[in-house]
Prior knowledge:
This protein has helices at residues 14-25, 45-52, 66-75, 97-106, 177-182, 195-205, 231-248, 254-274, 278-293, 295-302, 312-316, 321-325, 334-340; strands at 4-10, 32-38, 57-60, 82-86, 90-92, 110-119, 134-137, 142-144, 147-148, 151-152, 163-165, 172-176, 209-220, 329-330. The protein is an alpha/beta fold and 349 residues long.
Amino acid sequence: xxxxxxxxxxxxxxxxxxxxxxxxxxxxxxxxxxxxxxxxxxxxxxxxxxxxxxxxxxxxxxxxxxxxxxxxxxxxxxxxxxxxxxxxxxxxxxxxxxxxxxxxxxxxxxxxxxxxxxxxxxxxxxxxxxxxxxxxxxxxxxxxxxxxxxxxxxxxxxxxxxxxxxxxxxxxxxxxxxxxxxxxxxxxxxxxxxxxxxxxxxxxxxxxxxxxxxxxxxxxxxxxxxxxxxxxxxxxxxxxxxxxxxxxxxxxxxxxxxxxxxxxxxxxxxxxxxxxxxxxxxxxxxxxxxxxxxxxxxxxxxxxxxxxxxxxxxxxxxxxxxxxxxxxxxxxxxxxxxxxxxxxxxxxx
Length: 349
Protein backbone atom coordinates (compact mmCIF):
# COMPACT_ATOMS: atom_id res chain seq x y z
CA UNK A 1 0.00 0.00 0.00
CA UNK A 2 1.52 3.30 -1.11
CA UNK A 3 2.10 5.85 1.62
CA UNK A 4 0.02 9.03 1.47
CA UNK A 5 0.52 12.28 3.35
CA UNK A 6 -2.63 14.40 3.55
CA UNK A 7 -1.26 17.91 3.95
CA UNK A 8 -3.61 20.67 5.07
CA UNK A 9 -2.36 24.25 4.84
CA UNK A 10 -4.00 26.32 7.56
CA UNK A 11 -4.33 30.04 8.10
CA UNK A 12 -6.82 31.16 10.74
CA UNK A 13 -9.33 28.44 9.89
CA UNK A 14 -9.82 26.85 13.30
CA UNK A 15 -13.58 26.61 12.63
CA UNK A 16 -12.96 24.49 9.52
CA UNK A 17 -10.48 22.25 11.31
CA UNK A 18 -13.03 21.60 14.02
CA UNK A 19 -15.78 20.83 11.49
CA UNK A 20 -13.87 18.82 8.89
CA UNK A 21 -10.81 17.18 10.47
CA UNK A 22 -12.97 14.36 11.90
CA UNK A 23 -13.90 13.24 8.37
CA UNK A 24 -10.23 13.29 7.30
CA UNK A 25 -9.15 11.31 10.36
CA UNK A 26 -11.84 8.73 9.52
CA UNK A 27 -10.34 8.12 6.05
CA UNK A 28 -10.50 4.42 5.17
CA UNK A 29 -6.95 3.81 3.95
CA UNK A 30 -4.29 1.77 5.72
CA UNK A 31 -1.17 3.84 5.09
CA UNK A 32 -1.77 7.56 5.49
CA UNK A 33 -0.84 10.35 7.83
CA UNK A 34 -2.20 13.85 8.30
CA UNK A 35 0.04 16.90 8.36
CA UNK A 36 -1.19 20.39 9.17
CA UNK A 37 1.12 23.20 8.04
CA UNK A 38 0.21 26.41 9.82
CA UNK A 39 0.87 29.64 7.93
CA UNK A 40 1.42 31.82 11.04
CA UNK A 41 -2.21 31.77 12.17
CA UNK A 42 -3.25 34.32 14.77
CA UNK A 43 -6.25 32.32 15.99
CA UNK A 44 -6.07 29.22 18.19
CA UNK A 45 -5.69 26.70 15.34
CA UNK A 46 -2.39 25.29 16.59
CA UNK A 47 -3.62 24.99 20.16
CA UNK A 48 -6.79 23.26 18.95
CA UNK A 49 -4.82 20.63 17.03
CA UNK A 50 -2.35 20.01 19.83
CA UNK A 51 -5.17 19.54 22.34
CA UNK A 52 -7.52 17.48 20.19
CA UNK A 53 -5.36 15.72 17.58
CA UNK A 54 -1.95 14.98 19.11
CA UNK A 55 -1.28 12.30 16.45
CA UNK A 56 -1.40 14.87 13.64
CA UNK A 57 1.99 16.17 12.54
CA UNK A 58 2.29 19.94 12.90
CA UNK A 59 4.54 22.23 10.87
CA UNK A 60 4.47 25.81 12.12
CA UNK A 61 5.72 28.76 10.07
CA UNK A 62 6.75 32.11 11.49
CA UNK A 63 5.03 34.03 8.70
CA UNK A 64 2.34 33.55 6.07
CA UNK A 65 3.96 32.18 2.90
CA UNK A 66 0.72 32.02 0.92
CA UNK A 67 -0.69 28.87 -0.63
CA UNK A 68 2.27 28.25 -2.91
CA UNK A 69 5.12 29.03 -0.54
CA UNK A 70 3.40 27.31 2.35
CA UNK A 71 3.00 24.05 0.49
CA UNK A 72 6.49 24.14 -0.99
CA UNK A 73 8.07 24.63 2.43
CA UNK A 74 5.84 22.04 4.07
CA UNK A 75 6.36 19.34 1.46
CA UNK A 76 10.13 19.68 1.74
CA UNK A 77 9.65 18.24 5.21
CA UNK A 78 7.14 15.49 4.40
CA UNK A 79 8.11 12.01 3.19
CA UNK A 80 5.51 9.88 1.37
CA UNK A 81 4.87 8.27 -2.01
CA UNK A 82 1.91 10.58 -2.57
CA UNK A 83 0.84 13.95 -1.26
CA UNK A 84 -2.72 15.17 -1.00
CA UNK A 85 -3.05 18.94 -1.06
CA UNK A 86 -6.29 19.34 0.90
CA UNK A 87 -7.99 22.57 1.88
CA UNK A 88 -9.06 22.92 5.50
CA UNK A 89 -12.65 23.60 4.39
CA UNK A 90 -13.15 20.19 2.77
CA UNK A 91 -15.23 17.32 4.13
CA UNK A 92 -14.26 13.93 2.71
CA UNK A 93 -16.09 10.64 2.27
CA UNK A 94 -14.52 7.81 4.27
CA UNK A 95 -13.58 5.91 1.09
CA UNK A 96 -12.36 8.90 -0.89
CA UNK A 97 -8.62 8.15 -0.92
CA UNK A 98 -8.36 4.59 -2.24
CA UNK A 99 -9.86 5.30 -5.72
CA UNK A 100 -7.46 8.22 -6.24
CA UNK A 101 -4.41 6.11 -5.44
CA UNK A 102 -5.66 3.20 -7.56
CA UNK A 103 -6.08 5.42 -10.61
CA UNK A 104 -2.70 7.09 -10.10
CA UNK A 105 -1.08 3.66 -9.79
CA UNK A 106 -2.75 2.35 -12.94
CA UNK A 107 -0.45 4.31 -15.27
CA UNK A 108 3.07 5.57 -14.69
CA UNK A 109 2.27 8.71 -16.71
CA UNK A 110 -0.46 9.87 -14.31
CA UNK A 111 0.99 12.50 -11.98
CA UNK A 112 -2.11 13.94 -10.30
CA UNK A 113 -5.73 12.95 -9.67
CA UNK A 114 -8.61 14.91 -8.18
CA UNK A 115 -11.91 13.67 -6.70
CA UNK A 116 -15.34 14.94 -7.62
CA UNK A 117 -15.81 18.25 -5.80
CA UNK A 118 -19.31 18.95 -4.53
CA UNK A 119 -20.63 21.98 -2.67
CA UNK A 120 -20.76 21.67 1.10
CA UNK A 121 -23.69 24.10 1.23
CA UNK A 122 -25.53 22.39 -1.65
CA UNK A 123 -24.36 18.76 -1.58
CA UNK A 124 -26.09 17.78 -4.83
CA UNK A 125 -24.34 20.54 -6.80
CA UNK A 126 -20.81 20.79 -8.12
CA UNK A 127 -18.48 23.21 -6.38
CA UNK A 128 -16.74 26.07 -8.17
CA UNK A 129 -13.13 25.06 -7.47
CA UNK A 130 -12.77 21.89 -9.51
CA UNK A 131 -16.21 20.28 -9.95
CA UNK A 132 -15.55 17.06 -11.91
CA UNK A 133 -12.25 18.09 -13.46
CA UNK A 134 -10.67 21.23 -14.87
CA UNK A 135 -10.10 22.42 -18.45
CA UNK A 136 -9.05 25.67 -20.15
CA UNK A 137 -10.02 27.34 -23.39
CA UNK A 138 -7.53 28.50 -26.02
CA UNK A 139 -7.06 31.82 -24.19
CA UNK A 140 -6.38 30.23 -20.81
CA UNK A 141 -9.75 30.79 -19.14
CA UNK A 142 -10.45 27.88 -16.77
CA UNK A 143 -13.72 25.99 -16.50
CA UNK A 144 -14.80 22.54 -15.31
CA UNK A 145 -17.01 19.59 -15.99
CA UNK A 146 -19.98 20.83 -14.01
CA UNK A 147 -18.96 24.50 -13.73
CA UNK A 148 -18.63 27.12 -16.45
CA UNK A 149 -17.95 30.62 -15.06
CA UNK A 150 -20.69 31.17 -12.46
CA UNK A 151 -23.00 28.37 -13.61
CA UNK A 152 -22.86 25.39 -11.26
CA UNK A 153 -24.62 22.24 -12.43
CA UNK A 154 -26.45 19.79 -10.21
CA UNK A 155 -24.67 16.46 -9.92
CA UNK A 156 -26.91 13.92 -11.68
CA UNK A 157 -24.11 11.48 -12.42
CA UNK A 158 -23.51 13.08 -15.81
CA UNK A 159 -19.76 13.39 -15.17
CA UNK A 160 -19.12 10.22 -13.19
CA UNK A 161 -16.64 8.69 -15.62
CA UNK A 162 -12.96 8.90 -14.79
CA UNK A 163 -11.45 11.19 -17.37
CA UNK A 164 -8.22 12.83 -18.38
CA UNK A 165 -8.39 16.55 -17.62
CA UNK A 166 -6.19 19.62 -18.02
CA UNK A 167 -5.95 20.66 -14.38
CA UNK A 168 -6.78 19.25 -10.97
CA UNK A 169 -8.05 21.46 -8.18
CA UNK A 170 -5.68 22.58 -5.46
CA UNK A 171 -8.52 22.10 -2.98
CA UNK A 172 -8.11 18.31 -3.10
CA UNK A 173 -5.30 17.04 -5.31
CA UNK A 174 -3.46 13.74 -5.02
CA UNK A 175 -0.02 14.05 -6.61
CA UNK A 176 2.99 11.77 -6.85
CA UNK A 177 5.66 13.16 -4.57
CA UNK A 178 8.50 12.62 -7.03
CA UNK A 179 6.57 14.42 -9.79
CA UNK A 180 5.86 17.37 -7.47
CA UNK A 181 9.52 17.79 -6.58
CA UNK A 182 10.68 17.18 -10.15
CA UNK A 183 8.62 20.22 -11.20
CA UNK A 184 10.00 22.27 -8.32
CA UNK A 185 6.57 22.41 -6.69
CA UNK A 186 4.17 25.30 -7.01
CA UNK A 187 5.33 28.60 -8.52
CA UNK A 188 5.56 30.98 -5.58
CA UNK A 189 5.06 34.05 -7.78
CA UNK A 190 1.43 32.97 -8.08
CA UNK A 191 1.03 33.22 -4.26
CA UNK A 192 -2.60 32.05 -4.56
CA UNK A 193 -4.99 31.36 -7.47
CA UNK A 194 -4.28 29.38 -10.65
CA UNK A 195 -1.06 27.95 -9.23
CA UNK A 196 -2.45 24.43 -9.55
CA UNK A 197 -3.22 25.00 -13.24
CA UNK A 198 0.36 26.14 -13.80
CA UNK A 199 1.68 23.04 -12.03
CA UNK A 200 -0.58 20.74 -14.04
CA UNK A 201 0.42 22.43 -17.31
CA UNK A 202 4.11 22.04 -16.50
CA UNK A 203 3.53 18.41 -15.63
CA UNK A 204 1.87 17.83 -18.99
CA UNK A 205 4.65 19.64 -20.83
CA UNK A 206 6.93 17.07 -19.19
CA UNK A 207 4.89 14.12 -20.41
CA UNK A 208 2.60 13.50 -17.42
CA UNK A 209 -1.20 13.23 -17.37
CA UNK A 210 -3.84 14.68 -15.01
CA UNK A 211 -7.07 12.82 -14.24
CA UNK A 212 -10.33 13.03 -12.28
CA UNK A 213 -11.77 10.03 -10.44
CA UNK A 214 -15.43 10.72 -9.53
CA UNK A 215 -15.66 7.50 -7.49
CA UNK A 216 -13.95 9.66 -4.91
CA UNK A 217 -16.01 12.60 -3.69
CA UNK A 218 -15.52 15.46 -1.27
CA UNK A 219 -17.52 18.52 -0.24
CA UNK A 220 -15.88 21.96 -0.35
CA UNK A 221 -17.02 25.15 1.37
CA UNK A 222 -14.92 27.48 -0.84
CA UNK A 223 -13.92 31.12 -0.45
CA UNK A 224 -12.27 30.46 2.90
CA UNK A 225 -9.24 32.71 2.38
CA UNK A 226 -10.17 35.41 -0.13
CA UNK A 227 -13.84 36.06 -0.83
CA UNK A 228 -15.03 35.90 -4.42
CA UNK A 229 -15.70 39.65 -4.58
CA UNK A 230 -12.31 40.60 -3.15
CA UNK A 231 -10.36 42.81 -5.63
CA UNK A 232 -7.15 41.18 -4.44
CA UNK A 233 -8.52 37.86 -5.71
CA UNK A 234 -9.39 39.57 -9.00
CA UNK A 235 -5.83 40.85 -9.30
CA UNK A 236 -4.31 37.40 -8.80
CA UNK A 237 -6.75 35.72 -11.14
CA UNK A 238 -6.05 38.09 -14.03
CA UNK A 239 -2.32 38.59 -13.43
CA UNK A 240 -1.72 34.91 -12.89
CA UNK A 241 -3.78 34.03 -15.95
CA UNK A 242 -1.36 36.00 -18.12
CA UNK A 243 1.72 34.57 -16.41
CA UNK A 244 0.28 31.08 -16.80
CA UNK A 245 0.01 31.53 -20.56
CA UNK A 246 3.39 33.20 -20.99
CA UNK A 247 5.23 30.50 -19.06
CA UNK A 248 3.65 27.48 -20.70
CA UNK A 249 2.39 28.22 -24.22
CA UNK A 250 4.24 26.82 -27.24
CA UNK A 251 6.43 29.49 -28.84
CA UNK A 252 4.29 29.80 -31.96
CA UNK A 253 1.17 30.59 -29.88
CA UNK A 254 2.46 33.08 -27.32
CA UNK A 255 1.93 36.43 -29.06
CA UNK A 256 -1.48 35.69 -30.58
CA UNK A 257 -2.97 34.10 -27.47
CA UNK A 258 -1.73 36.72 -25.00
CA UNK A 259 -2.82 39.59 -27.28
CA UNK A 260 -6.34 38.16 -27.41
CA UNK A 261 -6.32 37.47 -23.67
CA UNK A 262 -5.41 41.08 -22.93
CA UNK A 263 -8.23 42.25 -25.19
CA UNK A 264 -10.77 39.97 -23.51
CA UNK A 265 -9.54 41.08 -20.10
CA UNK A 266 -10.15 44.70 -21.09
CA UNK A 267 -13.73 43.85 -21.99
CA UNK A 268 -14.13 42.14 -18.63
CA UNK A 269 -12.67 45.17 -16.85
CA UNK A 270 -15.19 47.55 -18.41
CA UNK A 271 -17.98 45.12 -17.60
CA UNK A 272 -16.94 45.42 -13.94
CA UNK A 273 -16.87 49.21 -14.32
CA UNK A 274 -20.40 49.36 -15.74
CA UNK A 275 -21.55 47.14 -12.86
CA UNK A 276 -20.11 49.64 -10.39
CA UNK A 277 -17.36 47.29 -9.22
CA UNK A 278 -14.56 49.87 -9.27
CA UNK A 279 -12.24 47.78 -7.11
CA UNK A 280 -12.32 44.91 -9.61
CA UNK A 281 -11.82 47.32 -12.52
CA UNK A 282 -8.70 48.74 -10.87
CA UNK A 283 -7.49 45.25 -9.98
CA UNK A 284 -7.48 44.18 -13.64
CA UNK A 285 -5.60 47.33 -14.64
CA UNK A 286 -3.07 46.61 -11.89
CA UNK A 287 -2.77 42.99 -13.03
CA UNK A 288 -1.99 44.03 -16.61
CA UNK A 289 0.53 46.61 -15.44
CA UNK A 290 2.29 44.08 -13.22
CA UNK A 291 2.47 41.54 -16.03
CA UNK A 292 3.64 43.94 -18.76
CA UNK A 293 6.12 45.91 -16.64
CA UNK A 294 7.76 42.68 -15.44
CA UNK A 295 7.82 40.99 -18.83
CA UNK A 296 11.59 40.50 -18.73
CA UNK A 297 11.23 38.69 -15.42
CA UNK A 298 8.49 36.41 -16.75
CA UNK A 299 10.62 35.74 -19.84
CA UNK A 300 13.49 34.59 -17.64
CA UNK A 301 11.11 32.25 -15.87
CA UNK A 302 9.87 30.87 -19.18
CA UNK A 303 13.36 29.94 -20.31
CA UNK A 304 14.84 29.04 -16.94
CA UNK A 305 16.24 25.54 -16.55
CA UNK A 306 15.70 25.38 -12.77
CA UNK A 307 13.43 26.46 -9.97
CA UNK A 308 9.73 26.26 -10.64
CA UNK A 309 9.89 26.70 -14.38
CA UNK A 310 9.40 24.65 -17.49
CA UNK A 311 12.84 24.02 -18.94
CA UNK A 312 13.99 25.43 -22.26
CA UNK A 313 14.37 21.86 -23.46
CA UNK A 314 10.67 21.21 -22.99
CA UNK A 315 9.62 24.48 -24.60
CA UNK A 316 11.75 23.84 -27.66
CA UNK A 317 10.62 20.24 -27.98
CA UNK A 318 7.69 19.54 -30.29
CA UNK A 319 6.21 17.39 -27.52
CA UNK A 320 5.68 20.53 -25.45
CA UNK A 321 2.84 21.42 -27.82
CA UNK A 322 0.97 18.28 -26.79
CA UNK A 323 -0.66 19.81 -23.69
CA UNK A 324 -1.97 22.92 -25.44
CA UNK A 325 -3.00 21.04 -28.58
CA UNK A 326 -4.75 18.25 -26.68
CA UNK A 327 -8.52 17.85 -26.48
CA UNK A 328 -8.37 19.09 -22.87
CA UNK A 329 -7.97 22.62 -24.30
CA UNK A 330 -11.18 24.00 -25.80
CA UNK A 331 -10.26 25.45 -29.19
CA UNK A 332 -12.76 28.28 -28.96
CA UNK A 333 -13.36 31.21 -26.63
CA UNK A 334 -15.30 30.12 -23.56
CA UNK A 335 -16.11 33.81 -22.98
CA UNK A 336 -17.84 34.03 -26.39
CA UNK A 337 -19.63 30.72 -25.94
CA UNK A 338 -20.90 31.58 -22.46
CA UNK A 339 -21.80 35.27 -22.66
CA UNK A 340 -22.77 35.62 -26.32
CA UNK A 341 -24.00 32.19 -27.41
CA UNK A 342 -25.43 31.44 -23.95
CA UNK A 343 -23.85 28.01 -23.64
CA UNK A 344 -23.75 27.68 -19.87
CA UNK A 345 -23.25 23.94 -19.42
CA UNK A 346 -20.11 21.88 -20.01
CA UNK A 347 -22.15 19.47 -22.12
CA UNK A 348 -23.20 22.34 -24.43
CA UNK A 349 -19.62 23.11 -25.47
